[in-house]
Amino acid sequence: MAMRYRVLQKTYKQMVECTSPYIHGLGLFCRRDIEAGEMVIEYAGTVIRSVLTDKREKMYDARGIGCYMFRIDADDVVDATMSGNEARFINHSCEPNCYSKVITVDGQKKIMIFALRRIVPGEELTYDYKFPLEEAKIPCNCGTKRCRKTMN
C-alpha cells in the first residue's frame, strides 16, 4: 500500500481535474480510465485534533469560507480548507463511484479515495460522505435514482 501511495503522489494529476460539476460547487472529474479498486487521490490537508474542529468551522463561517474537513478517527481530522488538494472538491452521491479508506503509510494515517467501480474519462468522482444522522438535515443534490434526499 505504501508503494502505491508514493506512486500516486506523483501521478494523480494525470487522473483527475477540478472543474464545474453536475452536482454542486466545484467537482473532481476523471481524466483517464480508472479501474475498480485503484487508488485515486489522497484527501490531503492539515491534520488537527478533533477538539479543534468546531472552533475552526466557526472561524471559517465568520470569514465566509467553505469548510473542508474529513475525520480520520476519533482523535484526528484532516482540515483541507486552507491547505488541501483537489480531493476536497469530490462531491457526495448516494450512488458513488468511489469510497474512502484510512491507510497507514510510514506510521502516519492517510485518507485515500479508491475507485468503487470502473470510472471513465469525463465522469465526476463521488463518494458517500456518510454524515451522522442528525435532526437538522443537509439536503442532497446528487440526483441519482437512489438519492436519499439528505446527506445525513
Automatic annotation (TrEMBL):
Domain of life from the UniProt record: Eukaryota
Keyword tags: Bromodomain, DNA-binding, Methyltransferase, S-adenosyl-L-methionine, Transcription, Transcription regulation, Transferase
Gene3D superfamilies, sorted: SET domain
Listed GO biological process terms: methylation; positive regulation of DNA-templated transcription
SMART domains the UniProt entry points to: PostSET, SET
Coiled-coil segments on the chain, per record: none
Post-SET domain mapped to chain residues: 136-152
InterPro entries hit by this protein: KMT2A_2B_SET, Post-SET_dom, SET_dom, SET_dom_sf
Pfam short name (any one): SET
Record-level Gene Ontology MF annotations: DNA binding; histone H3K4 methyltransferase activity
Domain SET: 13-130
GO (cellular component) term, any one: histone methyltransferase complex
Protein name: Histone-lysine N-methyltransferase trithorax
Species whose genome carries this gene: Geodia barretti (Barrett's horny sponge)
